[in-house]
Amino acid sequence: MASMPVPDTIKNTYGQGLTDGKWYQLIGRYPRTVNHAKWVQSERTFVYEGANETKSIPIEEVDEILAEVDPLALDPGITRGLI
Predict the structure, then answer these.
(1) 66: DSSP letter
(2) How far is residue 53 from each of residues 27, 61, 65, 77, measured CA to CA in Å?
């Protein structure tokens, strides 16, 4: 899979590009919260499962990419239907 470079407006502690379908730990801009979400390159957004629906975080609303994470190690509530 090809990776997309992280835009210069986002701090990239992870140090690598974003790969479609991979899960990342990130910090959103407003509210400034840590999230775990799956990168959907075609939509340029991160997605995760909320309580009742799939939530999305557009790349423009991300402040920092911290790390790639293993979705199997995350809370199943945020990954269900997305792995």
Answers:
(1) E
(2) 20, 19, 23, 11
